[in-house]
Specification:
Layout lengths: L1 H15 L13 E10 L12 E9 L5 E15 L6 E6 L10 E2 L2 E4 L4 E8 L20 E4 L2 E3 L3 E12 L5 E2 L3 E5 L2 E3 L8
Antiparallel strand pairs: 1-2, 2-7, 3-4, 3-6, 3-10, 5-6, 8-9, 9-13, 10-11, 10-12
Length: 194
């Protein structure tokens, strides 16, 4: 019995000398989607001061819990399909998290399939600070669509987004999303234009 115990101990000691393989970060940990792109209503963002809300959803697509230190950086690029030179780049950080409490002590832990969202708001100005609905070449409002509001025809805009969440992982990109935008202009100084 002692010989068997000593032999077993010898085998166990030999196994302890084996080196473990080098840890390699997984290639695909997160996915990114623009899950909501909406033009805010007149009572929130009145005509002449319109705003678009973009919500990005990040999901852990890795088969295990993932935890690492965070260094959030990324961009949302929104451009006018008919005039691609009219574009806006919005820079993302941890401030765009809808729940900043997910980051604890500089680290983010995500269970498999767990999601969180990031929100960005676009004030319809391009990177040159020009309010796009006022561009001379843009469609002119031509019909009354609400009390005291003229509307134009929908124009298509495109959202591109990419973000890096974890310190040691690269950027993940979302598929492009197209959305219609309708120029809204006040007829007179009355609600909702006050």
């Amino acid at each position: 019995m002692k010989a068997l115990t000593v032999g077993s101990l010898g085998l166990m000691l030999m196994r302890c000398n084996e080196s473990l393989p080098t840890y390699k970060f997984p290639d695909r940990v997160l996915s990114l989607q623009a899950t909501l792109v909406e033009q805010l209503p007149d009572r929130v963002a009145p005509p002449g001061n319109q705003v678009v809300h973009v919500r990005l959803t990040v999901e852990n697509v890795y088969s295990d819990i993932f935890q690492d230190s965070v260094d959030v950086k990324g961009t949302v690029r929104i451009w006018w399909q008919r005039m691609p030179t009219r574009l806006r780049t919005i820079y993302l950080s941890v401030k765009n998290f809808s729940n900043r409490g997910l980051v604890q002590n500089g680290q983010l832990t995500l269970l498999p399939g767990e999601q969180f969202t990031m929100d960005a708001y676009w004030n319809l100005k391009d990177d040159d600070s020009i309010y796009i609905p006022n561009v001379d070449l843009i469609y002119q409002p031509h019909h009354l669509c609400d009390v005291n509001v003229w509307c134009g025809d929908p124009e298509i805009f495109v959202v591109d987004a990419s973000v890096s969440i974890y310190d040691r992982l690269g950027f993940v990109a979302a598929p492009q999303v197209e959305f219609p935008f309708v120029k809204r202009e006040c007829v007179s100084i009355a609600p909702p234009c006050i």
